[in-house]
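Dear colleague,

Thank you for sharing your sequence with our group. We've completed the structure prediction you requested, and as agreed, I am returning the results in plain text so they can be pasted directly into your records. Please verify that the sequence below matches your submission; if there's any discrepancy, let me know and we will rerun it promptly.
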Amino acid sequence: MPQAAFSRASGRPNDLVRLVGIARMAAESSVLIEKRRVEYRNLATRKWLNRCQSERVPFDWTINPYRGCEFACKYCYARYTHDFLERHDPAAFETEIYAKEWNAAEFQEELRSVKAGQMIAIGTATDPYQPAERRFLSTQNLLEAMAGLRGVSICLTTKSNLVGRDVALFLALAKHNRVQVTVTVTTTNRALARLTEPYAPSPEMRLKAVAKLAEAGVSVGVMASPILPLITDSESNLLAVARAAKDAGAQRFGAHVVFLQPTAQRVFYPFLEEHYPEHLARYQRSFREGAYLSGAYPEKMRCLVQDIRAQVGLLAREMDSEIVPVAPPAEQMLLF
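Please find the predicted structure tokens below.
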């Protein structure tokens, strides 16, 4: 599909005729609020609940209340999702946030498709507790609407301390379902976190949220993903995160190596060039033929994380144990 021209003033297409589907809906959306660096828009949506067919993950359904994420993590794989809106500038993912229009009755109708024993994952592409949530309450609304589910696994992943706001909702859902909250903490080094995740809450704030959830009885874990080769992959870094997670009351810990799709590379490589120029060429060689690393390096990281769990006394994330590895094509069998 040809890319429509966008006006510099509004960032909206000059020629709506060339857009269809969700790209047209995004273009026709209205600005709800503007911040210093971020513009929020509403987005009409046909459905909130999406069927997941990927063999790489154990989810049956995914929910992402927002499109785009204000946290602006340099490695974020989800930047490609703005391509569906015909917004091909990778920076637009972090500066144009779309809040899906909420309709409780329609969402309840969607939930009728969810069966006992299935898994719903919330926040698989964009953070459900980014700053937009304070205004739109989209995640709060969907958690309240899911109260009627029975026998379902519900997992939510976030980098935000705002998750502590919904302790009561998690506990209510857990009465009849399996509920697991995972807070992402890639490093306990505040300066490093600020470089790689510039607008996310600090690691200390996230760990305080972990403690709040744990003290209330919510099943909570910590994820140190993505592991960034040569940056956050040291044993000392991962061990520090695991120990901090244990001290905060987390039950589980996990981490996986970063994968870099072309859209993510367009942001991550300039970041490396500025802050870690000595690593840039090695990343470019390793990810030249594919987004995923394979071979000795990810296996080494898997074993390291496993050893750290045993050393600290934490469990594996149940989702990690259910993921079925899918071998990439031979040309993508890369070593870092």
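Summary note from our side: The two ends are 35 Å apart (CA to CA).

Kind regards,
the structure core
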